[in-house]
Amino acid sequence: MKYCSNCGAEIKPNQKVCTQCGTPVHQQRSTNNNDNHNKKSKLPFYITIAVIVVILIALFTAYKIIESQLSPTKQAEAISSDLKKNKPSNLAHNLKANGESLSKDEAKAVYKYINETDSPERVGNEIQSAAQDMKDNTMGGSSVTVGDNELINISQDGKKWGIFKNYNFNVNEESVTILPEEDSTLSYKHNDDTKQVKLKQGKTKTLDDFPIGIYDLKATQKVDEKKFDGVVHIDMSESSDAEPQFKQKRFTVSTDSAYIDSDSLKLYINGEKQQDFNEYASETFGPYSPDEKVEVYATTEVEGKQFTSNVENVSSPENDEEEVDVTLTFDDEAISDHEDKVFEKETQSEEDEDPSSSDDEEVTRDNVIDKVESYEGESLDTDTYTYKEPEETDDGWGFSFTDKDGNLAGSYTIDDDGYVTEYDEDGEEVNSGY
Predict the structure, then answer these.
(1) How far is the C-alpha of 54 from the C-alpha of 38, rounded, in Å?
(2) What are phi and psi of 162, to 5 degrees?
(3) Is beta strand 2-3 parallel, antiparallel or unpaired with respect to 266-269?
(4) I need a labelling partner for 328 at 20 to 30 A (CA). Which of 158, 192, 340, 393 fits?
């Protein structure tokens, strides 16, 4: 049931005006709707304002949270923490080199350098302090020195997302060179890339630019069709020179004898004569494979007779040795005895001023063997050889000798004045003298 809003009289269905006061019924409904609409429209306005305020507060809070997480001091704190907690791989998240993020291998090399030359804790503290100074004093950049190198440069580089300050923690790089000992082809692995360079003996070659650090790069070296496995060691705490370290035999040779004739000294490696060997030149021989048998010996000629040193089997270097020193020895006593005998023979060959003694120098069947034994400096080796009877020749005397199987082993001729010439089984002259 409806009532007139003006006088309160009852309004019957389909009645268009109030019968008491004449107020149209539809105006009453319109008026009531407008009142209700005005009352309801006020509520959403306050809710809208509240929502906007809440959104602004949320955005500001989010801004502050993100700003704190992206703060340069937060980056510095993360780097410092990784250094102090010995987590070198994590350094790759915040450190760069030449504008590119460090690889994990490079990050480990940088940490190794810091640990070797300084204290990770001290360096971590300095990085945090430098970043905080930049933030507080609106500085454009700073640096951290480790050892003898300016290791890390900190610089402001624009803004992240156009809102937050962006800092770069950049590790400086150095150019690494290598001085090869022989012509070779070197292959080494860096950041999962295999690089190959051709090296010339004694000629410095630049490998690449590396973030300052200490590296052991897996490598192979090819020399004269021989391939060796090892590493290229780079320690920038000492120098920027690369040091190849391969599993191979290298050695120097020295001699231990007081009777060596340097002019006739010859060196043999695995039976092959080495050209122009000079024991004072400190020459390095190799490389040879670690499991390759390498035998070394030397010969020298003293007063017409050749002497051979001991045979040395070269071992592989141990621990951090780059090369092995091979010392060859000669039988100095045998060489000395030979020199004495030569001297005696030369003295005996001089003409005796006493004519009465000239008959004693005449070579006969009876003293032929004595002349040969005097030349040899020892008795003939009848246990090993069979000596034929001396026979007289046009120039003096001579005889041959065989081994126990009857094979010709050599011979001697003795001139009328007692000069002995020795021959081998092929009739080739071996030596001669008194």
Answers:
(1) 26
(2) 70, 10
(3) unpaired
(4) 340
Token couple for 268: 């043999």
CA pair distance 302, 330, nearest whole angstrom: 12
Assigned token pair, 275 = 């050209």
3-class SS shares of the chain: helix, strand, coil, % to 5 = 30, 35, 35
**Residue 219, φ and ψ in degrees, nearest 5:** -150, 165
| CB contact at 8 A, 256 and 275 | no
Per-residue pLDDT of the chain in tens (434 residues, 90 and over written 9) = 677 877 877 777 777 788 778 788 764 444 444 445 555 555 577 788 888 877 877 766 665 555 555 566 788 888 999 999 999 999 998 899 998 999 999 999 999 999 999 999 999 999 999 888 887 886 667 889 998 899 999 987 655 544 556 678 999 999 999 999 889 999 999 988 999 999 999 999 999 999 999 999 999 999 988 889 889 999 999 999 999 988 888 899 999 888 888 889 999 999 999 987 888 877 889 888 888 899 999 999 998 899 999 999 998 777 666 788 999 999 999 999 998 888 888 777 664 444 444 445 688 888 999 999 989 888 898 889 999 999 988 888 999 999 989 999 999 999 988 899 999 999 999 898 88
Measured distance CA(287)–CA(109) in Å, rounded: 29
- CA 93/CA 81 separation, integer angstroms: 12
Residues recorded for the chain: 434
Q: How far apart are CA 237 and CA 118, in angstroms?
A: 10
In this structure, what are the phi and psi dihedrals at residue 103, rounded to the nearest 5 degrees?
A: -75, 165
Q: What is the pTM of this model?
A: 0.56
Contact call for residues 349 and 417 (beta carbons, < 8 A)? yes
Helix (H, G, I), strand (E, B) or coil at 314: coil
